[in-house]
TrEMBL record:
Its EC number is 1.1.1.210, 1.1.1.270, 1.1.1.62. This is 3-keto-steroid reductase/17-beta-hydroxysteroid dehydrogenase 7. The chain crosses the membrane at residues 229-250, 308-337. One of its GO terms (cellular component) is endoplasmic reticulum membrane. The keyword Thylakoid does not apply. Belongs to the short-chain dehydrogenases/reductases (SDR) family. ERG27 subfamily. It is a single-pass membrane protein. It is found in: Endoplasmic reticulum membrane. Binds to the short form of prolactin receptor. It comes from the Eukaryota. PANTHER family: 3-KETO-STEROID REDUCTASE (PTHR44442), 3-KETO-STEROID REDUCTASE_17-BETA-HYDROXYSTEROID DEHYDROGENASE 7 (PTHR44442:SF1).
Length: 342
């Protein structure tokens, strides 16, 4: 049986690099690129077909920040396919990133420079906004839209004859300090990207607890420091040109500077090669690149603490067709864990 793979945010960066690697590994798979910009999606599809002319590559119009778009895309996908083996939740945004330049220059010439570049801790803030659905944009795009997609594709993901794997692209910027159970959408903070990525780590754990007995597994990855449009949007392009030699030098001493989308996609590709049931449900799989340029994947436990006694499990009211928070489109239900280890 041919494997079916759906990748969100597949038209550039890590998503496109992953698609190229997947087709190089298995030319028979059925690959679906789910993207917001269909012009760029078609360009990505054509680029893949140049190197893999016999590949089965289709397009799906999907804006994960728009809940109506998510439901339409899920319905269209279910009409085309009767199974889904791998669902890569890769799309994401970091709107209007701002850098604390004083902290940046201070960190640039300190012993903390590697950690600063690898995580962005203490450096990055973003300006979020509210979507027409009444949700915070970063929360909706990076987390909730993807969760709704999982729920809608549940009939294809939970089947008796095979196991399936949901894979979240997280970040080294996913920090516990930026996330609060009392402010899941991060309406009151200035680090919505970090909060959403930490929440995706937790949601992956919750999905495993809820769905493993039905053949659906979930994993989360960290691509390392990768130069994509998200990264280049943080600082002016000329500045990246100036500091890139420094970053290549630093990579000799750290394995988290993957830098290229191909390297950053290593953990995503590695998971494709594994049996879903063999994976550690509490692990976050990191793409790493040695100083000599060799890529490898390494698991680390998802960072939680003793105060996180519940994971947020979202229960959409799917029969409701008016997508506004005030009309109770979504009902948030706490998903209680027996224990969450550090």
């Amino acid at each position: 049986m041919k494997k079916v793979v759906l990748v969100t945010g597949a038209n550039s960066g890590i998503g496109l690099a992953l698609c190229e690697r997947l087709l190089s590994q298995d030319a028979q798979l059925q690959l679906c690129l789910a993207c917001r910009n269909m012009q760029r999606a078609e360009a990505a599809r054509q680029a893949l077909l140049v190197s893999h002319p016999q590949a089965q590559v289709t397009l799906l119009h999907l804006d994960v920040g728009n809940m109506r778009s998510v439901l339409r895309a899920a319905e269209e996908f279910k009409q085309k396919y009767n199974r889904l083996d791998y669902l890569y939740l890769n799309a994401g945004i970091m709107p209007n990133p701002r850098v604390d330049h004083k902290a940046f220059y201070k960190g640039l010439f300190s012993s903390n420079v590697v950690h600063m570049f690898a995580t962005g801790e203490g450096l990055l803030t973003q300006e979020d906004k509210v979507t027409p659905n009444g949700l915070q944009e970063v929360f909706a795009t990076n987390l909730f839209g993807h969760f709704l997609l999982v729920r809608e594709l549940e009939p294809l993901l939970c089947q008796m004859d095979h196991n399936s794997l949901v894979i979240w692209t997280s970040s080294s910027n996913a920090r516990r300090s930026a996330f609060s159970l009392d402010d899941i959408q991060h309406q009151k903070g200035r680090e919505p990207y970090s909060s959403s990525k930490y929440a995706s780590d937790l949601l992956s754990l919750a999905l495993n607890r809820h769905y493993n007995n039905r053949g659906l597994y979930s994993s989360v990855i960290c691509p390392g420091l990768v130069m994509t449009y998200l990264t280049y949007g943080i600082l002016p392009s000329f500045f990246w040109t100036l500091i890139m030699p420094i970053m290549w030098l630093i990579r000799i001493f750290t394995n988290t500077f993957t830098l290229s989308p191909y390297n950053g996609a290593d953990a995503l590709f590695w998971l494709f090669m594994q049996k879903p049931e063999s994976l550690d449900p509490m692990a976050k799989y990191h793409s790493l690149t040695s100083g000599l340029g060799n890529n490898y994947t390494q698991p680390h436990k998802v960072r939680t603490d003793s105060q996180i006694l519940s994971l947020i499990f979202f229960m959409p009211i799917l029969e409701c067709m008016d997508f506004h928070v005030s009309q109770l489109l979504f009902l948030f239900v706490p998903f209680i864990m027996d224990t969450v280890h550090k």
